[in-house]
Specification:
Number of helices: 3
Helix content: under 10%
Number of strands: 25
Shape: globular
Order of helices and strands: HEEHEEEEEEEEEEEEEEEEEEHEEEEE
Strand content: over 45%
């Protein structure tokens, strides 16, 4: 009786935290994987890793902060919940945006805008004839996407599938190659690597697949539910199979995971890539990567950086770092390579000098005025 009452109180607290979570848009995607650690007496040890991607420029700061902790639930194949956890972030890293296209002269000026926050959990699960689904749900995706309805109130549903015993015991999921947030030029063909690796040597295939939503403006951080999930409504004529307006349609090579296309309309687009894992001709598991890409034109990028670009010198630095900008610098934040703020200052000048001599050697990111960021090296 006391145990049930305690569990009920815990559930009420979690529900209360979920109900007051920030409802603002800030997510740009999600992916994940799991590894098999070992087994003993029919209990299987898996380590699950979830990555969520946050927009540090346009995302709501409160919503970004409230992503941590993350709620993750485990269900058997029949939909019965066997575990529910609140996970603290293990690490965070600021990702450098990759500009893929003809505007190479401004490539180094593309802002750092995305943070990858990683959550890790070890699960000890008994052998199961139905397998397990480990799920995560969170709202909201970045606002302003042109291919889906109501992106600023659109949540994410993510699922790790562990296959049933006897189908693929001791399975390790596939793992996507490292992802770099990408800005694509309009009317220019591109090639993007969406491949994955698999330590078990299973066969992998790829497709542009269904995108699922979870959580909403009224319940931004829900307790995760088991699949099936609600699908995202794409704006016609776009669909989840054809999610980007292109002169040459978006396509992925089913064998290599190489994504190609020629975008013909500027905008922000959300879609999902699936990597299917096959063993002896049987589909045993699938991992997903939901992501956002931005399509723009060189003139727009050049105009933005003409106003917002910053110049950092010397780089690498050992003592005093100078920052120059055409716009007035009012605030400077320095982040380490894990995404944690290590130094900050308030200014009112076009040129500021910062003493970084006390920082350990390594890679850092300078963020000015709460938006534009640039990498520097401390020796």
């Amino acid at each position: 009786m006391r145990k049930n009452l305690f569990l009920s109180l815990i559930t009420l607290v979690v529900l209360f935290v979920a109900s007051v979570s920030a409802r603002a848009s800030h997510l740009t995607g999600v992916d994940g994987s799991y590894v098999f650690i070992g087994d003993s007496a029919g209990i299987y040890h898996y380590r699950v890793m979830l990555n969520i991607y946050q927009d540090l420029i346009d995302g709501d700061p409160t919503a970004i902060e409230e992503d941590n902790p993350a709620f993750i639930a485990v269900f058997d194949g029949l939909g019965n919940r066997v575990a529910m956890d609140s996970l603290s972030s293990m690490s965070a890293a600021i990702l450098t945006t990759d500009y893929d296209g003809p505007c190479l002269a401004i490539d180094s000026l593309v802002p750092v805008s995305i943070s990858r926050r990683t959550f890790v959990k070890d699960y000890y699960l008994p052998a199961s004839s139905t397998g397990y689904n480990i799920t995560y749900q969170r709202c909201c995706m970045n606002g302003g996407s042109v291919n889906v309805t109501g992106s600023e109130m659109l949540g994410i549903s993510y699922c790790f599938h562990i296959p049933p015993s006897g189908v693929a015991d001791q399975n390790n999921s596939a793992v996507f190659v490292d992802f770099t947030p990408t800005v694509l030029p309009v009317d220019s063909a591109f090639l993007m690597d969406m491949s994955a690796t698999d330590v078990d040597g299973d066969s992998l295939s790829y497709e542009i697949c269904q995108t699922y939503t979870g959580g909403n403006d009224a319940d931004a951080k829900p307790l995760p539910i088991p699949p099936p999930f609600d699908t995202v409504a794409f704006i016609a004529p776009l669909t989840y199979h054809n999610p980007v307006t292109c002169a040459v349609p978006l396509a992925i090579n089913a064998a290599t995971g190489m994504l190609t296309g020629t975008p013909s309309a500027a905008g922000q687009y959300i879609f999902t890539i699936c990597c299917h894992e096959w063993r002896s001709g049987v589909l045993i598991s699938t991992i997903q990567r939901e992501l956002e890409i931005k399509v723009t034109d060189c003139a727009s990028i050049a105009a933005f950086y003409a106003t917002n670009a910053i110049h950092i010198f010397p780089n690498p630095a050992t003592g005093v770092l100078s920052i120059e900008a055409k716009q007035l610098i009012t605030k400077v934040d320095i982040y380490n390579s894990y995404g944690y703020k290590v130094q900050e200052g308030v200014y009112d000048a076009h040129v500021v000098k910062i003493n970084v001599s006390e920082l350990p050697a390594g890679v850092y990111f300078i963020r000015t005025n709460g938006g534009h960021s640039q990498k520097f090296v401390k020796r």
